[in-house]
Structure formats: structure tokens, C-alpha cells
Amino acid sequence: MIRSPLMNVMTAAAIKAGKALKRDFAEIPSLQVSKKGPGDFVSEADKRAENILYQELSRARPGYGFLMEERGVVEGPDKSHRFIIDPLDGTTNFLRGLPQFAISIGLERENEIVAGLVYNPVTEEMFVAEKGAGAFAMGPTSRDNYRLRVSQTRELSESVIGCGIPHALRGDHGLFLRELAGIMPRVAGVRRMGSAALDLVFVACGRFDAFWEHNLSPWDIAAGILLVREAGGLVSAVDGSPDIFAKRSVFAANATLAEPVRELLAVARG
User: Fold this and answer.
1) What is the pLDDT of residues 203-234, one digit of tens each?
2) Is residue 28 within 8 Å of 79, Cβ to Cβ?
3) Residue 174 CB partners (closer than 8 Å, separation 6+)
């Protein structure tokens, strides 16, 4: 289990922000909600959680910069370190009362993700990773604490694949439908859960065998990328590029299924 000073700081910040989210989740009807764009909602709960994360992490690491969903870029005197934060990944799930959302914190050092944390405050499942130290689950009981490993599934016909569906008026729906049509007949099942951070975690712990999604931002996936890699999986942009943030897409899978699933997606892109 990772017990470094850095991870202690990140877990403490996530737990504190998670308590606020959990309280707000119980009072969804009273939340003030505004629309940022089609299918993209922001709530007072989102802002509160981000403020907590920013305050806690900047106090513990005062020189670090930040990239956050709501505040955007906050420069720090230490140009080599930057926290990449999504205070509430799965906002639509949250606002609909679906307990499938998470806090995501990634730490970038010299443009490389070196630490990641994804935390679902409702289930109290927390997933952490540091570069070279492995990926782990941390939960409320001893049985919830274990090292993450990607699945050992070897056959496409036995695989369960996660995906993201473009929101209305945003993204290439035609491309997604072609990709889905190529994947569905070849696998045991396809799932759309509504939180890219947790979808990547599901690949890391073997609940999904692969996952793909387009039109993502760094804060959606920074932590999850490292979790998958430290659990033994492969991660790239959907087209295979290593420049995931620039391509704004992610593909993750176990080593055996990565190539065949990626090939099916490539056929759909033509």
C-alpha cells in the first residue's frame, strides 16, 4: 500500500472534499444548478469540492501549480509540478442521484503523471497510484484494500468493454455509432457508466477489459491513466498516439486485448 507523504496529502484532501460532496448528494433537490453547455452541468457542490481541494493541496504543496475544471490554470512558482483536478467527474450522474461519480486528482511532474487518486465518496472506494510503486484500492474495510491488476481476459468474445457516449450537440455521434457497431458483435458486453475517471479505474482493477472515449479533458483522465499503467494495462489515445491530452481521447485495455480492440476502433474510423 502506498503511504508516501504525497499520497497522504492527496488522500486527506480527497476525503475532506468527498464529505462535502456526500452531504450535497443527499440534498440534490436543493442544489443550485446552472448549465455550462449541452449536457454539461455545474453545481454548487462541484465548486465547493474544488475549493476544498485547492485549499488543502495548495496549503500542503504551496509552490505547485493547478489545472482544474472550474478555475482553469493556476500558476505556481514551482513550474515542474502541477495538480490536475476534477472535483466531480460524473456531474450528470450526481445530479440524477446516481452514485457513480468521483473526485480525480493527478500530479504532473515535468509533464509526466507521477501520482493519481480517484475517490467515490458514496461507496468510499479510493484508488491510488504512484509511478513505479503500483496501484492500490483503499476502502472502509480490510477486504477493500488490495493491489490493482488489469483483467486476464484473453478472448474478445468474453470481454466487457466500457465506453463514453458523446453528449447532445457535442462530439461525433456518427463516429461513435460506427465504433459501437464494430465492437458490440464481438464482445460479451458494452457498458456506459458516466464517469471517465471511474471507467479507467474499472480497467485498472479488472472490472472492464477495455475502455474508450473521445472529447475528454486532462482533468477527466490524468489520475486514471496512471492507475491503469501501474496496474499493468496499456493506455493511449484512441488512435494509438501517446499524446493523450492533445488528442483529447483515451483508450485503455489489458495487454492481450489492447491490439484487437484498437483495431476494431480503427476500422470504424476508416
Assistant:
1) 999 999 999 999 999 999 999 999 999 999 99
2) no
3) none
- pLDDT tens, residue by residue, 29-64: 776 676 665 545 678 889 999 999 999 999 999 999
Of 35, 44, 43, 46, nearest to 68 by C-alpha is 46
* Residue 38 CB burial class (10 angstroms; 0-12, 13-18, ≥19): exposed
Q: Are 86 and 46 contacting, i.e. CB atoms less than 8 angstroms apart?
A: no
Q: What is the pLDDT of residue 270?
A: 81
CA 185 – CA 166 distance, rounded (Å): 21
Question: Do the Cβ atoms of 229 and 253 come closer than 8 Å?
Answer: no
pTM: 0.94
Let me know if 136 is exposed, middle or buried by CB neighbors in 10 A (0-12, 13-18, 19+). Answer: buried
- Going 58 to 62 to 64 to 67, the CA torsion angle's sign is positive
